[in-house]
């Protein structure tokens, strides 16, 4: 399983939110580029970046620092936040970012997601952020009536490279991932699922590893690596570090890393 460190950008700083609440943010660093290089040095094979300002404003805000991070690292970078039209996605990928993470438009304009998957094959990831099984949008500020599992199935059919599933009520809480929700979603689709939200220990990562055989091929770790509850290089050693994007998937088969 691939262990993916996360950097959330807000006001130029590296922060973590509690349950997606912008009013409950904590700064963990003021130099995102240095932070990104630190995670690479500890053995990360991929970096997860979220432009929180962009997610709230509806368009990317932190592109200059994202470009610096992508240039500074030799590992792939995946970025989400405020990507709601083709031009912004193309602009982001033009900076050297490996994958664009789409959230709100997956609900509001799924046809565009399909077009982007065709134009940028293998580079479009769909982020599904859920509250009680319903998909949240616009930086988690709104909750739709769309079921997370139904959206995942549709996005898989449209050609998404992977699904990042976040349980908002677990995000930033360090209470452990929602294994039941992840299991339900992974069993419904044939593309990789990346777990996000709640990881607080290597034990949590090992519990996620039990879902690898049904397609949960990666885990994003945020607050726990900043508090020291998870030491990234030790976590990588404990659960292995597969690279989901390097693994071909056959229809009807589960992802294996």
Written account of the structure:
- The protein has an eight-stranded parallel β-barrel, surrounded by eight helices.
- It has 257 residues and is of the alpha/beta class.
- Helix 1 packs parallel to helix 3 and helix 9 packs parallel to helix 11.
- It has one domain: Aldolase class I (TIM Barrel), CATH 3.20.20.70.
- The longest helix is centred in the middle third of the chain and has 11 residues.
- The chain is built from eleven helices and twelve strands.
Task: Provide a brief overview of the structure.
35% of the residues lie in helices and 28% in strands.
Radius of gyration: 16 Å
CATH topology: TIM Barrel
Estimate what percentage of residues fall within beta strands. Answer: 25-35%
Count of helix runs: 11
CATH top level assignment? Alpha Beta
| Secondary-structure-derived class | alpha/beta
Which shape, going by the Cα principal axes?
Answer: globular
What's the total count of β strands?
Answer: 12
Kindly list the characteristics that best describe this protein.
alpha/beta; single chain; 35% helix; 11 helices; globular; 28% strand; 257 residues; TIM Barrel; disordered C terminus
């Amino acid at each position: 399983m691939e262990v993916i460190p996360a950097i959330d950008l807000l006001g130029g700083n590296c922060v973590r939110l509690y349950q997606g609440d912008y009013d409950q943010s904590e700064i963990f660093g003021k130099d995102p580029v240095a932070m990104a290089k630190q995670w690479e040095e500890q053995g990360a094979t991929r970096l997860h970046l979220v432009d929180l300002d962009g997610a709230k404003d509806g368009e990317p805000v932190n592109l200059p620092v994202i470009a610096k991070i992508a240039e500074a690292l030799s590992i792939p970078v995946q970025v989400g936040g405020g990507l709601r039209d083709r031009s912004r996605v193309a602009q982001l990928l033009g900076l050297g970012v490996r994958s664009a993470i789409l959230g709100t438009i997956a609900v509001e304009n799924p046809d565009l997601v399909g077009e982007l998957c065709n134009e940028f094959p293998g580079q479009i990831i769909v982020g599904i952020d859920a509250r009680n099984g319903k998909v949240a949008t616009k930086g988690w500020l709104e909750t739709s009536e769309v079921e997370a599992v139904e959206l995942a199935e549709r996005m898989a059919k449209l050609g998404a490279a992977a699904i990042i599933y976040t349980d908002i009520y677990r995000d930033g809480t360090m209470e452990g991932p929602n294994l039941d929700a992840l299991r339900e979603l992974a069993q419904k689709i044939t593309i990789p699922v990346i777990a996000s939200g709640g990881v607080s220990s290597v034990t949590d990562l090992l519990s996620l590893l039990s879902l690898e055989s049904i397609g949960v091929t990666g885990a994003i770790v945020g607050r726990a690596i900043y508090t020291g509850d998870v030491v990234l290089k030790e976590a990588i050693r404990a659960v292995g570090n597969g690279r989901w994007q390097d693994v071909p998937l056959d229809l009807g088969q589960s992802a294996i890393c």
